[in-house]
Amino acid sequence: QVQLVESGGGLVQAGGSLRLSCAASGTMFSIFSMGWYRQAPGKQRELVATITSGRGTNYADSVKGRFTISRDNAKNTVYLHMSSLKPEDTAVYYCHAGERSGLVNYWGQGTQVTVSS
Fold this sequence. Notes:
By secondary structure, the chain is mainly beta. It is 0% helix and 58% strand.
C-alpha cells in the first residue's frame, strides 16, 4: 500500500506561482510513475503532469512551459511548480502514484488551487 499526502495549495492571483508537494509513504518499490491530475467543478479529472522513476516527464498541453514536475526519490516526494497561473488552472489537484502495469493506482486526498483574475 502507498499513502500520498499533498500540500501547498491555496489562493493566488493570476500570473502568480505555487508549488505543490506530494509525500509518499509505504511500499514504494513497485511504483513506476508519480504525477498530478486535476479536477475542476463539473469537469472530468485530467492529467496535468507525470514523472517516471527514470525522471521521464509528460505534461498536458495546457500547462507546458508554465508547470514543472520534479521528483526527489530519496524523500519519496514529487513536486509541481506552477507559474504564470491562470483562472482556468483552478481545480482540486490530486497526487497519483502508479505501477508500471497501470493496474494499481493510488491517489491523494486532493488540494485546492484557486486562481483569481
